[in-house]
Amino acid sequence: MGGVAAGDGEVRGKGLGKGSVGLMGSAVIGISTVAPVYCLTSTLGSTAGQVGLQMPAVFLAGFLPMLLVAFAYRELNKDMPDCGTSFTWTVKAFGPRIGWMCGWGLVIATIIVLSNLAGVATSYFWLLAGEITSDPDIAALDHDKFAHIATCLTLIAVATAISYRGLTATKGVQYTLVGLQLLVLAVFVAMAFQKASAGAFDTGVDFSWQWMNPFAVESMGAFTAGLSLSIFMYWGWDTCLTANEETIGSAKTPGRASLIAMVVLVGSYLATGIAAQMAVGSGDKGLGLGNPETSGNVFAALAGPVMGPALGILLFVAVLASAAASLQTTFIPVARTVLAMSTYEALPASYAKVHPRFKTPGRATVTAGVATGAFYTVMTLVSENVLTDTIFALGLMICFYYSLTAFACAWYFRGDLRRSARDLFFKGVFPVLGGLLLAAVFVKTLTDAWDPSYGSGSTIPGLGVGSVFVIGVGLLALGAVIMLITERRSPAFFRGEVLTRSTPSLVVED
């Protein structure tokens, strides 16, 4: 289990399996957590619906703050490798309360995306089963709430069990699943380009460099909504950092792995977005990406027309593999953040327990699985548009804790900024710029989300505001309430007596 500081001034490990993954394994876990094929099928259409043909420009615009924040994570991890990442670093920079809320933002964002992943995996499980059996009644089981929820909870339980067994088990599964989804995505892109050149679909459009111009988006509101979705599509690369205590070369390898993952992601998104747009366009009719009837699950609509009946099934398999792989690895950041918060007395001590055989935060992992299942069940029962609304709300959470972490980097290293140009830019200018961009998206999204028409257009009965606003603000408010309760039970942490700037970090070997 983990104490904080040992008697010789060094830090005892928290009991995690040291040296479980290397550079390639860490990068694969980062890519898997993001789940590019799942992200594309969930948001490609919604983004096109918001910004039209400027979708590739918005993908690039979303990549910029992510890259700037990634520099902040790299610098913080190099100085303070700790599985608590954003929580630990923000506490050291800004104090226990801001740090606690930053940790809560990461935890709740992960719970949201886990539920979303499970929902998409469930949908594609039944779609795939229907395609294989050629029985539409089987595919229609996805629309049966009881069958959908039961399948979803089963998938969550399986993913929890695999994650419970540690990174070694996780890594072995991920190489296959990530390789499969990237290969099928490459085939889809190639065939979409082929269909576009042949003019196979009436809605297809010719490529234009104007697609790369973010200033051509019709309104700031549309741009912000598209940017929020784009930011969601990159979320998860920081899992590389969360697994730092289990990575070979903990101070440097996770940062390098996260940058590799980011490059793979932006390349995949641009290629797919451009190819799909050329093939079917971004309009709201027929196969157009912005068609509201298919925009929430684009690949389900495009698999057959673009790839044909036989190969189209492979795309269903790829989405299922992508969601299932990410469902498994996304338990890593939430469980390890909870482990760190418990180790530093910001949560009950029971969550600091590590399984003696698997070297994983077992109780934290199981609790995350239960919370995910409960959240998805409740949201599915009260909302018909749970996937769309939770993705928009997730954008709020991502901007919240990423921006806090970026600002924490600049403040923590403020004394180093005059030492060299490198320190000035990588520890100060880049993180602050990334933090400001994400903070601006957070504020604009929060303002826009007050309108009931934002997101799916769903409203909470009796409140008169949009579901996205209620979900986002409600979850942050819940975190504040839990923090106040925790403060009464763990006063030492909130008095700043447990985790301070001078608390030594985990001693690692590079």
Report what the structure shows.
The chain has 510 residues and is mainly α. The protein contains 18 helices and no strands. The chain is globular and about 65 Å long.
Oligomeric state? single chain
- Average predicted confidence as pLDDT: 84
Annotation, overall tally of beta strands: 0
How does the overall form come out from the CA principal axes? globular
Protein name: APC family permease
Main location: membrane
Subcellular location: Cell membrane
Pfam families: AA_permease_2 (PF13520)
Based on the model shown, name its key terms.
single chain, 510 residues, mainly alpha, 18 helices, 69% helix, 0% strand
Care to give the gist of this entry?
The protein contains 18 helices and no strands.
List the helices and strands and how they pair.
Blueprint: H1 23-34, H2 36-51, H3 55-79, H4 86-94, H5 96-133, H6 136-139, H7 145-164, H8 167-198, H9 220-234, H10 239-242, H11 253-280, H12 298-329, H13 331-343, H14 362-382, H15 386-412, H16 421-449, H17 467-489, H18 491-494
Helix pairs in contact: 1-8, 1-11, 1-12, 2-9, 2-12, 3-9, 3-11, 3-15, 3-16, 4-5, 4-15, 5-7, 5-12, 5-13, 5-14, 5-15, 5-17, 7-12, 7-14, 8-11, 8-12, 9-15, 9-16, 13-14, 15-16, 15-17
Subcellular location: Cell membrane
Organism: Streptomyces polychromogenes
InterPro entries: AA/rel_permease1, APC_superfamily
